[in-house]
Every structure is written in C-alpha cells, then in structure tokens.
Amino acid sequence: MSENTLRRGRPGYDQQGILDVAVAAFNEYGYDATSMGVLADRLGLSKSAIYHHFTSKDEILDRALDSALSALEGVLEQADASTGRAADRLDLVLRGAVHVLVERLPSVTLLLRVRGNTEVERLALARRRAFDKRVTALVSEAQAEGSLRSDLDASVVSRLTFGMINSIVEWYRPGGGEDADRIADDVVAVALDGLRMPTANRVEDLLG
Amino acid sequence: MSENTLRRGRPGYDQQGILDVAVAAFNEYGYDATSMGVLADRLGLSKSAIYHHFTSKDEILDRALDSALSALEGVLEQADASTGRAADRLDLVLRGAVHVLVERLPSVTLLLRVRGNTEVERLALARRRAFDKRVTALVSEAQAEGSLRSDLDASVVSRLTFGMINSIVEWYRPGGGEDADRIADDVVAVALDGLRMPTANRVEDLLG
DNA sequence: GTCTATATTGAGATAGAC
DNA sequence: GTCTATCTCAATATAGAC
Asked: Structural domains in chain A?
C-alpha cells in the first residue's frame, strides 16, 4: 500500500512520491551510480528540494529497504500465527514471499542488491539474515516431521529455494500477463515436485 | 585457470594479478563504489600504476566479465557437442554452470551484478541474454521429447532454475566443506525431483 | 613499472532567498 | 516546498620524472 500511494497535493512532493521515483532510479542505475542530480532531474526538482524531504541519500535508501523488510517479516509472522504443520507454514511463506516480491517489486529489488557498504546497508543485511534463519528453521521442522526429504541440508534447501524466488525480480515486470498467484504456483511446483516427468527415466539412469 | 594464475615476477603486477585484486574489491564494495584509490591501496600501488596496465576502470570490468561469460558459453558448447537427449544435455549444462560458478566465483559474481550502465555492461548483458535463450531452447526440447513436465513455461523454468544456480554466489565460499560436485548434485536434485517426500501428502491435499 | 604531482569533473550536502 | 548558488571533497584520469 505505502509504495503505490498517490500524492495528495498535485504540485510538490511528499516523502512517498520522492521515494517511488528514487527507488526506481536506484534499481535502474544502481544506488551508488544514481546521483542526487539525476534524481532531481527525474523528479523535476532541484537537488536541494530533495534535502527538504530527506536528510541524506542514505535515508532514502533506509526507508526503501525498511518497506521491503517489513513486508517480508510480515509473511513470517503470518505463517507463524497459523497452527498447521511445518510444511503448510513453509508453503505459506514461499507463496507469501512471491507476493511481497511482486507487490513491492521496486523496494525488494533494491534490498536484494544491497552490499553492506554503509551502516544502513549492514543493518538491512542483518535483518535479511534473521529472515533466512527463520526460514531454515522452518525447513528443518518440515524435514523432521517427514514432509520434506531429509537427504539435503536445510540451509542449502532454503537458500536454493529463496534463490529461485528472489531471482524473480530479474525478469518479472507488472502487466506482463503473469500474475503473482501463477508465479507462486510455478515456484512451489518446481521446489516441491521438481521438473521431471513422473514417467520419464530417472537421473540415476541418465548419469550412471 | 586464468583467474588463479600466480604472478611471475614477485615485485610488479601483470594484468591478471591486478584483475584478481580488482574483481575481489568490486564484489566487496560494488563496482561503482570501488574507487581507483582503494584499488591502489589494496594493490600497494599508486593509482597511476594501475593505468599502466589498464586504460580505464571500465577495461578492468570488461576483462573480468569476459572471463565469466567465456566460461559459461563454453559449457553450452560442450553440451551442444554431446549427442544425447535434450534432458542429458540440460543436465550437463546445469552441472557445468555450477562448476563454472564455483571455479570462477569472483568474475561470475561480478557478472551477475552488472546493471547495464555503460557500453561494456550492456554488451555483457547481451551475451547473458543470448546464453539464457539457448538454455530456454534446451528446456523446450526436453519438454518436447517428454523428459520434462510440459505444464510449465520453458522460459519460466529456465529462469527459475538459473535463478537457483546463480544464487549460489551469494553464499558459497571456497573451502567451506561443500565442493562443486556436491552442490551441483543438490541443485539438480531440487530442480528435477523437488523437495517433497515421495510418500508425504501432496500440496493439493494441503491447500485444497 | 612505478612514482608524485595535478588537471578536471561531478558528487553529496548547505545557505539563504522566495 | 522549492529555488540558485556555492562549499567541500573525492572521483577518474593524465603528465612527466625516475
């Protein structure tokens, strides 16, 4: 909701309006390569007008990353609130993450590219790591209850699965015919059931 | 081979020696955020000494990206040279890509973060897109011959699968106990067979 | 092959008027 | 809430000596 809010007054920006334009530019050129000058040009403002709304370029990044992280953390909260089996809760997390990714594509894209150069970035990375840890715990639980195969390491599984989900930001574009539900179905289909035709030869046969 | 070459003369760098240090720094801070100054510090050289070996910062990037792209394209060449079924050739491509990723981790990591800001970057992205297109064609072929399930779009399948593979650069670190073969096995296991325990309830039952 | 300058450009950020 | 003008610093790159 916060990311697609329309500005109230026509002339003059509020924080959210500037944020939307800034995040789009950061994703296009990269955060470091986006100067306050080109940002001002895109907004049709002067550089100093931006500083009326944000105290620094860093603060713009901070706000954007918080939007993505809050949404992702919300998915875990919702899943933890459900009382189902670990496999059910994991399913909710995977589908929920795809939805967050699609609905907050700009800020999540930005989050996934953060390297940890500044304090703001390091704090965001720490929140991401905490998220990953909780997902890994959920995978372990699902393995322990017998819902997921146990021959793969839980952290490798959660990393590969979220690697697949996160890669969606590289190609998904809104209005391209595929909606979030369909993509979530595809992700869960590949992650849980795999690509192989049930009737085809197994890899063991193919590779010896 | 080219990326781990030891320098011949002890004092004084050759191009490869500078390249290794530069790529490591680019991956740590991001290309744009890495100045020639910190690069010089890491090398124990002055900035101008670097310009003796490379005409520009851009040229350093160009060399590094070419290393990654050549290796990945080589994987496709090898697979195309084999005469097996499409499913077998796809298997070779997936495992080969994991190996390239692990063996040329620095340059591939750099490649995966390129945004397309400069001509050098745009050319690299074009080569990446060509690679992806050939992989998608291979997936289609495997679907047509009945080796892979056909209810998923071939381009979505190849994107998700390579999203999983590419995400390895985010967490794999050499000497961490897991070797490339093991990771390739895990990737192929998840991609082809999925995570679900064969005997467990199916998703349809879980979600209604 | 490396150095000490230095030229030049553009960055993030501020002052103060309107 | 936005502007013009400017400060300050750091960036890429070059010149020319050793």
From this structure: 9-55 (1.10.10.60), 58-197 (1.10.357.10)
